[in-house]
Amino acid sequence: MENVKLILLRERSEYLLGAVTELDEEPSILxxxxxxxxxxxxxxxxxxxxxxxDLFLTSEAILTILDPSPNVxxxxxxx
Length: 79
Fold this sequence. Notes:
Layout lengths: L3 E6 L5 E8 L6 E9 L5 E3 L9 E3 L4 E5 L3 H9 L1
Antiparallel strand pairs: 1-2, 1-6, 2-3, 3-4, 3-5
């Protein structure tokens, strides 16, 4: 699965996982099929209470973008 990234937010504690597309203007990031990674490596839909799984984020909201661990990536692929 290409472009699946782990996103850490600047002012929030969620670890978001999804297919990331960088855009040319703000909002600068599209996360498709977004999930939240729990501390134990399990996943849950993000945001809660919505069926929408594609999110736009501005560059100010993002602390960093990382490659997920192999275990988390495998869990995401099977979700």
